[in-house]
């Protein structure tokens, strides 16, 4: 696997271990140990994935993510404390693509990184149709962007793919398990609200520009994209 990875974590020992491991798997790995340093690197360089710790000096991970999302949609995996649901949910609300609780297995982290980079590569090289359009919502598959009445929606890569998967099955129910497998690259774990949070973010961003209801919740199972 070849990927440019930025680690933003003040635990230098962990950073060194992750750098050594990910480099052995073919990644180019860079590290920053404070919020401002990490944000500057994230904004001025191009990375395939950013590993972002919540607890950082000067600017915490949430502040870094919020500032990053105002300008770039680089995929972000949050590194959260084990069992801290608030950090996970808040990170997803701010636009994180995924999270992994500390302490974590290096192989699991690598699998998360591969899932994100594989999804992006697939979308870039396997475009079937130029666009989808329903009511005032349009999805451009070539550029991986969405818009309402020509106004771009600031979707993260994960949010875009959630919307894409729902649109591909317009009029048909899509389970949370399916969305977790196809978008996040992992089985849906008990009490994992990642899919719900990403879909909620998509809805909020659409609602800022349109009164049309596109995505309906199917209680206990999943979602359906409503046909025009």
UniProtKB/TrEMBL annotation:
4-aspartylphosphate modification sites are 53
Q: State the InterPro entries in the record.
A: CheY-like_superfamily, CpxR-like_REC, OmpR/PhoB-type_DNA-bd, Sig_transdc_resp-reg_receiver, WalR-like, WH-like_DNA-bd_sf
DNA-binding region per Swiss-Prot/TrEMBL record: 129-227
* Residues annotated as domain Response regulatory: 4-117
Q: Name one Pfam family in it.
A: Response_reg
Task: Cite the entry's keywords alphabetically.
Answer: Cytoplasm, DNA-binding, Phosphoprotein, Transcription, Transcription regulation, Two-component regulatory system
Classification via CDD domains: REC_OmpR_CpxR, trans_reg_C
The record's subcellular locations are: Cytoplasm
**Which ranges carry the OmpR/PhoB-type domain?**
129-227
Q: Know the name of this protein?
A: Response regulator transcription factor
Q: Which organism is it from?
A: Pseudoalteromonas viridis
């Amino acid at each position: 696997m070849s990927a440019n990875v930025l680690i933003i974590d003040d635990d230098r020992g962990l950073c060194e271990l992750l750098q050594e491991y990910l480099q052995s798997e073919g990644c180019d790995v860079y590290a920053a140990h404070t919020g401002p340093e990490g944000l500057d690197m994230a904004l001025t360089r191009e990375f395939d994935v950013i590993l972002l710790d919540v607890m950082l000096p000067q600017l915490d991970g949430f502040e870094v993510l919020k500032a990053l999302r105002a300008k770039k949609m680089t995929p972000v995996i949050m590194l959260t404390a084990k069992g801290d649901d608030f950090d996970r949910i808040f990170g997803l609300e701010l636009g994180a693509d995924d999270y992994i609780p500390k302490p974590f297995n290096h192989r699991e982290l690598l699998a998360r990184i591969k899932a994100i980079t594989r999804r992006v590569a697939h979308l870039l090289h396997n475009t079937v149709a130029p666009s989808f359009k329903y009511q005032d919502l349009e999805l451009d598959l070539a550029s991986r962007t969405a818009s309402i009445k020509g106004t771009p929606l600031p979707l993260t890569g994960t949010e875009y793919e959630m919307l894409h998967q729902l649109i591909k099955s317009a009029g048909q129910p899509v389970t949370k398990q399916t969305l977790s497998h196809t978008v996040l690259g992992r089985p849906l774990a008990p009490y994992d609200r990642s899919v719900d949070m990403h879909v909620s973010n998509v809805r909020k961003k659409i609602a800022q520009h349109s009164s049309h209801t596109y995505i309906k919740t199917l209680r206990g199972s999943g979602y359906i994209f409503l046909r025009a």
